[in-house]
Amino acid sequence: MKSGVFLERDGILNLVKVERGSPATPLTLDEFKLNPAALEPLKRLKAAGFILLATTNQPGLSRGYQSRRDLDRMHDLLRRQLPLDDILVCPHDETDECPCRKPATGLLTEGAFKWHLDLERSYVVSDKWQDAHAAHVAGCTSLLLRSPWIGKGHHDFVLSSLDDVAEKLLQLQSAPSC
After folding, report:
1. CA–CA separation, 101 and 107 (whole Å)
2. What are the phi and psi torsion angles at 126 (to 5°)?
3. Where does the pLDDT of residue 18 fall: very low under 50, low under 70, confident under 90, or very high at 90 and above?
4. Do 129 and 153 contact (CB within 8 A), yes or no?
5. Which of 23, 63, 133, 135 would give a disulfide with 124, using CB separation of 3.0 to 4.6 Å?
6. How does 160-178 read in b/e, with b if 16+ C-beta sit within 10 Å?
7. In the predicted model, what is the mean pLDDT of residues 90-119?
8. pTM for the full model?
9. Which pLDDT belongs to residue 167?
């Protein structure tokens, strides 16, 4: 089985605005700005053999304030600009109690099944506590970028940049397994 890296879309792969103290997801292609710091670290991880999967909660779809066309256009841009193998989306609102909506583990288990990944040898990269929680429950290792949204819950690693994240992932990959 292979190792994967699950990358939170908003805040890791693309830039987000902060509105009322919370990250605000872009709703249109015009608002969608790739994170320029993501390309080189992702290329290094891809070259090392990792399966790279973007994950994202997009409740604007079910709430009706985001169109599927706009979301597809944003994801097409991600696929063209970054070495991603797949993009996994939960379109549900919190009230739907969907098993794929982070902090639940559904997107991780879906990706593991589809890409034949060993979750215990896979990683979650984010700047939010929800992803760290999902990683912990699914048996993945979490690598969080320092941000106001990482919370006080379980964190395996908290790092300062995507370059630091890539370096740590490459170290973990090369470490002998017990």
Report:
1. 7
2. -160, 180
3. confident
4. yes
5. 135
6. eebebbbebbbeeeeeeee
7. 95
8. 0.96
9. 98
Q: Looking at residue 108, what is its pLDDT?
A: 98
**Nearest alpha carbon to residue 63 among 103, 102, 107, 94:** 94
Residue range 1-13, pLDDT digits in tens: 899 999 999 999 9
3-state secondary structure of 52: strand
Pick the closest to residue 107 from 73, 76, 130 (CA basis): 130
120: helix, strand or coil: helix
pLDDT at 178 over 60: no
What are 30's two structure tokens?
Answer: 């015009």
In this structure, the number of other CB atoms found within 10 A of the CB of residue 95 comes to 9
Classify residue 57 as left (phi > 0), alpha (psi -120 to 50) or beta.
beta
Q: What is residue 177's predicted lDDT score, i.e. its pLDDT?
A: 63
For residue 41, with 0-12 CB atoms within 10 Å meaning exposed, 13-18 middle and 19 or more buried, which class applies?
Answer: buried
